[in-house]
Amino acid sequence: MSQVKKVLIHESKAITAGSILTYNVPSFDTIDDIILEFTNSGAAATKANILAGVGKIALNINGEQVVNLPLARLYDIYAMLGQEVTQNINNSIGLNIGRYLFKDPNNEDFFSYGCADIQTIQVQVYLNATVTGLTDCQVSTIRRATNTALGSYIKAINYPQTMNSTGISTVDTLPRDSNEAYLSIMAHNGGGKITGGECVVNGNSVIDPISQELDDYIVNARGLAAVDGVFNYSFSDGSIKGILPMQGVTELRLKTTFGTAPENSNYDLVAVSIRNVPAQMLAAVRA
After folding, report:
1. Pair 71, 54: CB distance under 8 Å
2. Which of 181, 263, 155, 256 minimizes the C-alpha distance to 215?
């Protein structure tokens, strides 16, 4: 049965330095993606000006945080997709990004926003104190004419970390919700230098202590792309089985080694996960 992918324009707002732009996205049909488009007096804004002028991006559905991360980190996730997204992402960028980690388009369609039980969809764009070459931001959606419940969806959340020296930064505080599964956790060097990483789940090694270079190779070999300055704890290979479910997990421990400490003693830890993992995926993982 045909499903026409409609592209609908919703609202454009003028950009003011230091402000927060809030968009209330209409809830109907099934939303495949919510897209931000940045312009400069009617022309496409440059990526450099967008990154300099925009701080954080947030998406809340029914009051739940679904996307919350610096815009620069969202561009990094797109860069990680490598050959899965073949064109450069410049002034237009979608928020439902994790769905593109799957090589089979049928799997992508598991991860949308079915609006039958959605009351509110809110997007927020946080502008920096200085903005140049940006005048407007417009929100649009890609939709299918189906009336489904919210179901499974992708989350992309930044968990900022503190690290003021060289050595190992251990994080064991990421959410371990039984209704979620991780696709990728990206440690950004914060202006320092990451030399390696390790991941332990319930006392068992999922990723042995490996170098940055080996991690880059593994990510590339899976058809994704290594991102400069990022150690990618990648659990996805593009298949329906490529997930790290949190059912029964009491310990999720990441150990990121810094050869050079992050600038300002801070670095970003961005988690891309699935909320309400589809039954088909859980069955495939257990098979």
Report:
1. yes
2. 256
pTM above 0.90, yes or no: yes
Task: Give the DSSP letter string of 78-108.
Answer: HHHTGGGS-SPP-SEEES-GGGGG-SSHHHH
Q: Which residue has the tokens 């945080």?
A: 65
Closest CA to 91 of 122, 129, 134: 134
- Identify whether the C-beta of residue 199 lies closer than 8 Å to the C-beta of residue 253: yes
Residues sharing a CB contact under 8 Å with residue 132, sequence separation 6 or more, in sequence order: 49, 52, 53
> What value does the mean pLDDT of the chain take?
93
Is residue 6 over pLDDT 90?
Answer: yes
Residue 221: Cβ within 10 Å count: 9
Rounded CA-CA distance 73/84 in Å is 18
Q: Kind and range of the H or E element at 128?
A: none
Mean pLDDT of 184-211: 98
Alpha-carbon span 81 to 224, nearest angstrom? 5
Q: Which of 65, 270, 52, 272 is nearest to 161 (CA)?
A: 270
Residues 278, 152 contacting (CB under 8 angstroms): yes
Residue count (the chain): 287
For tokens 């939709």, name the residue.
Answer: 143
SS (H, E, C) 230-255: EEEEECCCCCCCCCEECCCCCCEEEE
Helix and strand element counts for the chain (H, E): 5, 21
CA-nearest of 157, 135, 174 to 59 is 157
| 261 φψ region: left (φ > 0), alpha (ψ -120 to 50), beta (else) | beta
